[in-house]
User: Which sequence fits this backbone?
């Protein structure tokens, strides 16, 4: 699946580092999402952007900062993370408001915080 | 509030045997239902969906699911599994109540043995 791409695929960072995750969708969608997938826990929705506007922030700590400069790109800026933030971070996109409710996912970024 | 329950965290099965992965949901309004599959080290891929019409929906690789409104279920079935079907399977629901966000179950790991 190349409709939604994510870089990097793997990232190891220390707790004092600053890094960014990038997501790009080539499907012409207008909504984008960040999810966190931890071992043995359900998928957690973090942020939702509709038409570049943030419409949802599920009580995510401020050490995670999303950015959506246009409807095709989504970033997740990371700083002063904790070891419990180690997880697979998934980006997804969809058509908002058209009756096409399914989301398409990228391959994810495997983040390890040391 | 909506919720999705996947009762089985893991389902072991022998190759060529039939399998059923169970999914139940709770909602007070009409829903749209999805099954996603996640292969190791990959993102989620849409397997099949129910939006309206026929309650039996099928995927291109032999899986099918039936929407049962009275039992609030959307179980996934395959009459004969392959080793390559080994993966994590997620059931998801959305509706106007959740502002069309996807609510995911906790996942079922299908382990196909030779």
Assistant:
């Amino acid at each position: 699946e190349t409709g939604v791409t994510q870089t990097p695929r793997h990232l190891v960072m220390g707790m004092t580092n600053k890094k960014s995750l990038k997501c790009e969708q080539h499907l012409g969608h207008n909504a984008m999402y960040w999810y966190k997938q931890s071992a043995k826990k359900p998928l957690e929705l973090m942020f939702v952007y509709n038409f570049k506007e943030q419409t949802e922030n599920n009580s995510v700590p401020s050490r995670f900062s999303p950015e959506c400069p246009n409807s095709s790109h989504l970033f997740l800026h990371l700083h002063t993370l904790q070891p419990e933030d180690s997880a697979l971070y998934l980006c997804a996109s969809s058509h908002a408001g058209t009756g096409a409710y399914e989301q398409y996912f990228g391959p994810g970024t495997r983040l390890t915080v040391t | 509030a909506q919720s999705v329950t996947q009762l089985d965290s893991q389902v072991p099965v022998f190759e060529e045997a039939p399998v059923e992965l169970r999914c139940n949901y709770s909602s007070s309004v009409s829903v749209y239902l999805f099954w996603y599959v996640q292969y190791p080290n990959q993102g989620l891929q849409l397997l099949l969906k129910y939006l309206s019409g026929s309650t039996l929906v099928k995927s291109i690789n032999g899986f099918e699911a039936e929407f049962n409104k009275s039992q609030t279920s959307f179980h996934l079935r395959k009459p004969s599994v392959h080793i390559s079907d080994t993966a994590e399977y997620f059931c998801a629901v959305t509706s106007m109540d959740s502002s069309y966000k996807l609510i995911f179950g906790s996942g079922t790991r299908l382990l196909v043995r030779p």
In short: Chain B touches chain A through 21 residues (CB under 8 Å). The mean pLDDT of chain B is 92. DSSP finds no helices and twelve strands in chain B.
